[in-house]
Amino acid sequence: MGWLGPAELEALKLSLSVSFWATLVTLPLGIFVAYALARWRFPGRQVLNGLVHLPLILPPVVTGYLLLLTFGIQGPLGKLLAEIGIVVAFRWTGAALAAGIMAFPLMVRAIRLSIEAVDPKLEQAGATLGASRLFVFATVTLPMILPGVIAGAILAFAKAMGEFGATITFVSNIPGQTQTLPSAVYAFLQVPGGEAAATRLVVISIVVAMSALLLSEFIGRRVAARVAGS
After folding, report:
1. CA angle at residue 155 from 95 to 26, to 5 degrees?
2. With CB atoms 3.0 to 4.6 Å apart as the test, which of 100, 125, 148, 181 could cross-link to 15 if both were Cys?
3. What pLDDT is attached to residue 109?
4. pTM metric for this prediction
């Protein structure tokens, strides 16, 4: 990637790292929440569903501001984390947190649709044989929803790569620390002669997004075919 300057390359590497960790850390929670919404009936279920999808409805800047109020140095959770040496505001970890929250609804929705497509009788059959819920989920449900899990993870990764509003509000736009691809594009457009660098990053963003969508479809179909043939 010799055609990218040092600042552009740094923004690309940081975006990939932020998106990877945002997806990896939120995936287990995404599977759990998707399963809870698809299979369980409990008080507050609709509230949970609303909270999960709230980042899709709120302006990203509002989400970033709420994160700053909560996880900032003076925020309730921020103070607790700071006492054990963990600071996320204005750090790359905060960018991963913001990106993960913004991508979470897409992940949960893809996984939830896969779970709802699984016949509950298959899970009930495993339970009647004395298997625990966790064992049934690991051996029956999870293999069947794997295409949805993969699709959800890839879509979340792509969304995290393109996150801007919540990230720049929560962790600012610090080169080499919190400046991801969208933030770098914004920064380059603010300086004379920065259009060329911004255009290169825009092209990379489009390629990454399209590749993620195509990869999600391809892997999802391959895994679905393998599961159906097993």
Report:
1. 50
2. 181
3. 92
4. 0.88
